[in-house]
Structures are given as structure tokens and as C-alpha cells.
Amino acid sequence: MKRLGNYIFRALFFASLTSEILCQGNENCSATPSRRNPGSMDIMCTCMQSLQQRVQNVDALTIDRSGCEVVSALDISWNLLEHGIGPRTVTFIGAQIILTNPPNQSWNTSISRITFERCLFDSIPPKSFEGLSRLTELRFINNYIGNVSSYSISGLPNLRTVEFADSDIVNIHTSAISDLPALFEMAFVRTSISSLADGAVKIIRTPQLPANNDCPKIDIRIPPSDRMSDVMARSLESVDNLPLPEIGARLHFYFCNITALHPKAISSDWFSFVIFYGNRVSTFGTGAFQLTMDNQCEISAVMLVGNYFKSIQLGAVASIQKKQQANRPSYLVLTNNTFEFVAAKGFVIHPSIEVYSVADNKFVCECPNFAWLMSNSETPRQQEIERNLKASATCNYNSISVTTFTDSCPKRDMASYPSTEIVVVTLPDEVMYSSAVSIVHNQPTTGFLQGIFILSLVGRQLLSHF
Q1: Can you state the angle between helices 224-236 and 455-463, rounded to 10 degrees?
Q2: Domain membership of residue 51 as a residue range
Q3: Are 165 and 445 in contact (CB under 8 A)?
Q4: Does residue 259 form part of some domain?
């Protein structure tokens, strides 16, 4: 406790032999009966308060630093926290966070849910959550995060939900989110990301996948194409939760601003549904989505809808494919997007993927931007896909049909296209600081997966295009 004067807490909690939890300050934290779990207590600590007595059977612990005059770092040690308090859920609000690497030993773990709201992270270091074997939900709401380091969210056997919402992230490094055998849902919502490195999200299924007990719910008499329509409706109309499709793991990117999706940024054979809606992407790299799609008893799909892409690189979606042993079709939806530049072979689609829709897209109409129309003449299926893509597409600024525009382009202009490269953006310190201040002092927001009002609007917009 020697450095207690340098931080609000040097160690967040310290369990003494008398079972007292010692923190700085002379006011007690409040303890109230838990509404969610009768017989348990909820504890709220703000600023310089302290918990003077051991509270048995703690359900929820909240540390709220948003109204404090002194801004200092909160150093979190999970083993000390669980040994001293043993809460089931933990929420940190308005704090600068330092995550301490856990010791190389096991302990009795209790935490199942962690939420960070309006917090500042210089980085999330490797193995930040190691040892939390009961953790099922991890949420970052309205935070600033400098770097999500390699293996920072990794090796958690029961983690089912990971959410980043209303946040700013500079870099997500290789294998930052990996080795999560129970993952069911991951979401990035209204979040700015400068760079997703190669293999930033790397989720590979375990060799022995348990049987899905929900399979009997699927009516196998429904044709796969009709099933796709049903999945679209079920996944985007609810206002209570980000709910369905209810069978199969899913990855969501909603209303994000992404500078660079590097090659293999998302590498997985785990997700059954990838929904990429309303995002602005500067560079979508070659094979940025390296996905092997499968669902034990349901269809699988990648849906890119309503996005703005500044640059689509060669073979950007070519690494999306269906697993060879999959029983149900895997679909690609590519509709209502705006494309500023698409490289040659930018729309090459793997033969195992069935195209559900490529309708109502828009393009920045300059002749060199349509090299992709000239790059696949040897592939009849690809020609048909691109004809369908062109048939309903319009120019972004004047609504002229792409067919009419490209008919007027000299072939030499369409065959020559500029080269592009991935750019990783690192924000200067003054920008990082100003972003951090604005986030820490903002008003709280509700996690996207816990229910947001825009889902009904999203559903209506998406379904209007089918």
C-alpha cells in the first residue's frame, strides 16, 4: 500500500487477516439488498469511499469515479478483488484503468460479468483477464482505449459475450481477441477503430464441438432461401435486445468508423452470422474477412449492408467460404452499400458461397473505379454476379445507372486502376488526451446488446431492400 498516495487505490482491494477491505477515505460505501438476487447485497463505492467491513454474498459491485475532483488511475488486481469481495458482477465508471497481470496461480473466482463505462485505457495488456474462469460477459461502453494488445482478451473458457460500444480504439493487435471457445456473440457498435491488425480477432472452434440442442427447432422443410429471409427478419426487428439469429455464433459491426481492416483481420471458422451494417471503412484489405462459415443445423451468412467503403482491395471478400462438411448453405448479402473505389477482382466470391442479394449499391462513378468489371471474364459465375451487381447500382452523386455510365467509359480507363495500400493511423498524444477527457466526462449510455432504440429502424431499413 506504499503507493496509495499516487493512485486512488494502488491495489483496488486488499484483504487483510481481519477480512476488512482497506481503501482510502473515511466514508463508507453503500450496501443495499440486491433486486436481482435476493439474499445478496449490491455495493456502490464513489471517489474516496471505503468498505470498512466484509460484506458476505456480494452480487454487484460498482466503482463510480465520474464525479470525483481528483483524477488518478485505478489499479485493478482481479485476484485481490475476488479474494476480498467475491462479487458476481463488477462495473467501473468514469475511471482511468490500469489492469494488473494476475499472478501465476489459481484462485477461487466469482466474477461472471464485467462492464467498463466511460473509462480510459492507455492499453489493455496481454492476459488482462486471465484466471477469470467464470467470466461470461465483458463489455466496454463509451471508453477510450489506446491499444488492445495481443492476447489481452484470450483464454477465457466461459466467455460468451464481448461488446465494444460508443468507444474509440486506436489499435487492435494480432490475436488480441482469441482462444474463446464458448464465444456466442461479439459486437462493435458506434465505435471508431484506427486499425484491426492481421488476425486481430481470431476465433477457431475447438476440435470437439458439442451438439446443438436447438437443432430440433429448425423446420428442415423450409427452403434455404426462405430461411435466409426469415433470419434477416428475426435478427433485426427486436427493440429489446440484439437477439436473433438465435442458433449459431454471431459477429456484429454496427455504425463503426474503421480506418484499416488489414488482411485476415477477422479470422474465424466459428461465426455462423457476420452482420456488417452502417459502417464507414477507409480500407477493406485483401481477405480482411477470412471466414469459414458453418452452422450445425441452420444456414450461415455474411451480411454487408448500408456501409460506405472508401477502398475495396483485391480479393477483399474472396476468403469467405463455406465449410466443406456444412449441411446448410452459406450466403453473402451485399446490398445498399456505397463504394468509392474497388480494385480488380474486388468482388470475387468463393464458389461455395451462395449470393443472396447484390442489389441497390452505389458507386463513385469514375471510369478507373470499375476495373473489377473487366477482371473476371474467365469465370461465368463471377460474370453473372457482377452483371447483377451492376444492373441495380447507381452513381453516388447523380443517381445515373452504373450500366449507363460504364457504357461510356473507354476500355483502357477501366482496365487501369490506381494502387492503394493499408495505412495504420496512430493518434498523437494531444488527440488521445482530448478524446479521453471527453469520454470520461460524458453521460452514460446503455450497452447495445442490452437494447437500443435504433434496432427497429435498422430492421425496417434493411428489410426494405429485399
Answers
A1: 150
A2: 1-111
A3: yes
A4: yes
The SS3 assignment for 462 reads helix
Domain final residue pick, 62, 87, 111: 111
Q: 439 near 96, Cβ under 8 Å?
A: no
Reported as a single tens digit per residue, the pLDDT across 252-265 is 898 999 999 999 99
Q: List CB contacts of 174: < 8 A, sequence separation 6 or more.
A: 150, 197, 198, 199, 200, 202
Where does a domain end: 72, 88, 111? 111
Report which secondary-structure segment, H or E, holds 385. helix 380-391
Question: Which cell numbers hold the place of 276?
Answer: 456488417
For β-strands 113-117 and 89-93, DSSP reports them as parallel
Cα four-point dihedral sign 364, 366, 372, 377: positive
Residue pLDDT, tens place only, 404-416: 999 888 876 565 4
The identity of residue 136, as a single letter, is T
Q: pTM for the full model? A: 0.80
Query: What is the spatial distance between Cα 52 and Cα 24, in angstroms, rounded to a whole number?
Result: 10
Sheet with strand 289-293: strands edge to edge: 153-154, 177-178, 201-203, 266-268, 289-293, 320-322
The Cα–Cα gap between 255 and 18 comes to 50
